Amino acid sequence: MHTLHILRTEPDQTTTELLELVAEPEEKRVRLYSGDVDWDQLVEDIFVADKVISWW
Amino acid sequence: MSRTLGLCVTSDKHLDNVIGLASAAANKDVDLRIFFTGRSVLLTQEERFKNLVGLGKLYVCDVSFRANGLEGREVPGVGFKEFVTQARNAEMIEECDRYLVM
Amino acid sequence: MKKIAVLVKDPHQQYEALRTSLGALLEMAEVSMFVLDHEIADMDEAYSENMEFLDEMEGLRFSNNQVNVDRYGFQPANLAEIGDKIRESDIVIPF
């Protein structure tokens, strides 16, 4: 299972804990709040991933 | 066969992200549906909202629109039939290849 | 049937999250709603009625807030258990 995690804002304590709990060896994290987002790549990542979670 | 992407917008803070992702998806011929609900309906009154017109089908939760005092306001790219209920959002979950919250 | 986890962290979006959960249930999805950290901010008639409707539709509701468990009948779930449920879900909808 390859999960794409999209982080819209910097994770608070609850989000950080949940991310740790669902972490897998095969995963990718994209931080939208970093301000430097490759949107074309993100579209591809969304469809390549088995599952996408867009966190807060 | 085209890929379908459903975006559920729940926050009024991330319009730039919605436009960035929607524009990239449209450029890749992704069949895009965007549902605005909760406080995100306030985004429909921002100037930049019109950047989303033509990128995909736009839907607005009618209950949220009224609850936020916007009844009677026009929304670019959203006609009478696109003011919908949560049932439309649920249909998007079922029918789209990928569905995510922005 | 898709498994959906609705995660509710923003107290101002608790009602919106409940409505979204109900919409998904009506579309025959399997829905679990998790109210995180906060007590239900406004247990008014609308929230209460929709919560009962969610129960009747066999939606599941959990919380890691003990007040929600004791007062409003949410099933208790700690973050580790919620993490397991997120893993099992096809779709995750955070509010």
Shape of chain A: flat
Most strands sheet of chain A: 3 strands, parallel
Domain count of chain B: the total is 1
What does the radius of gyration of chain A come to?
11 Å
Low-confidence stretches of chain A: none
Helical content of chain A, roughly? Answer: 25-40%
Alpha plus pi helix count of chain A:
2
Structural class of chain A: alpha/beta
Strand order of the largest sheet of chain A: 2-1-3
CATH class of chain B: Alpha Beta
Largest sheet: number of strands, sense, barrel closure of chain B: 5 strands, parallel
Question: What do you see in this structure?
Answer:
The complex is a heterotrimer of chains A (56), B (102) and C (95). Helix content of chain A is 36%, strand content 27%. Chain A has helices spanning 13-22, 39-48; strands at 3-7, 27-31, 51-55. A three-stranded parallel sheet of chain A has the order 2-1-3, covered by helices on one side. In chain A, strand 1 (3-7), helix 1 and strand 2 form a beta-alpha-beta unit. The longest helix of chain A has 10 residues, at 13-22. Chain A is flat. The two termini of chain A are 22 Å apart. The mean pLDDT of chain A is 94. Chain B has 102 residues and is an alpha/beta fold. Chain B has a single domain, classed as DsrEFH-like (Hypothetical Protein Ychn, Chain: A). Helices cover 28% and strands 23% of the residues of chain B. Chain B has helices spanning 15-27, 62-67, 86-95, and strands at residues 4-9, 31-36, 57-61, 83-84, 98-101. The N and C termini of chain B lie far apart (25 Å). In chain C, helix 2 (45-56) links the parallel strand 2 and strand 3. In chain C, 44% of the residues lie in helices and 23% in strands. The longest helix of chain C is centred in the N-terminal third of the chain and has 13 residues, at 14-26. Chain C has helices at 14-26, 45-56, 66-72, 79-88, and strands at 3-8, 30-35, 60-63, 75-76, 91-94. Chain C has four helices and five strands; from the N terminus they run E-H-E-H-E-H-E-H-E. Chain C has a single domain (3-94), classed as DsrEFH-like (Hypothetical Protein Ychn, Chain: A, 3-Layer(aba) Sandwich), CATH 3.40.1260. Chain C has 95 residues and is an alpha/beta fold. Chains in contact: A-B, A-C, B-C. The interface between B and C is medium-sized, with 17 and 18 residues.
